[in-house]
Amino acid sequence: MIILLFIVHVLIALALIGVVMLQKSEGGALGMGGGGMSGFMTGRSTANLLTRTTAILGAAFFATSILLVLLSQSNRAPRSIIDQGSPVPTAPLMPNLPSAPSAPGTPAAPEPAALTPAIPAPAAPSAPLAR
Predict the structure, then answer these.
(1) What is the DSSP letter of 118?
(2) Where does residue 110 fall: left (phi above 0), alpha (psi -120 to 50 degrees), or beta otherwise?
(3) Contact 24, 51 (CB under 8 A)
(4) Contact 64, 5 (CB under 8 A)
């Protein structure tokens, strides 16, 4: 249905372009002259016919545009931030800190291997640096 309506929409757009191009320029604002089709259709009836055709094609273009939007949105469920609720909070990642001994004389828990540095500290220089 959407594909058929889209094809009709494109055909209406092309017809609208053609009808607008057939109309006589009334101001020469761009300096291109005023319509070279003097023998094809003349008189006031041409202006009325083209004006009405433009209005009808314009209304059809707007109608098909709105229908395409409505049909494309019908497949989606409406979403709202309020309906979604708040995200589930996650606990912050805290390093395992050594805990204080619970009673005097009890040894503290050993430090986990993951927190010990894998690279040893550099050794202190044996002699002072010369200047």
Answers:
(1) S
(2) beta
(3) no
(4) yes
Two structure tokens written together for 126: 């044996």
Count of alpha carbons within 13 angstroms of residue 93, beta-carbon side: 0
Both structure tokens of 112: 């986990």
Tokens standing for residue 6: 């889209």
pLDDT exceeds cutoff 60 at 45: yes
Q: Rounded CA gap, 7 and 5, in Å?
A: 5
Note the pLDDT tens digit of each residue in 60-116.
Answer: 999 999 999 999 887 677 677 777 666 666 766 666 666 655 566 666 555 555 555
CA–centroid distance for 6 within its chain: 21
pLDDT, one tens digit per residue, over 3-40 is 999 999 999 999 999 999 988 777 655 555 555 555 55
State how far the Cα of 131 lies from the Cα of 122, in Å rounded to an integer: 22
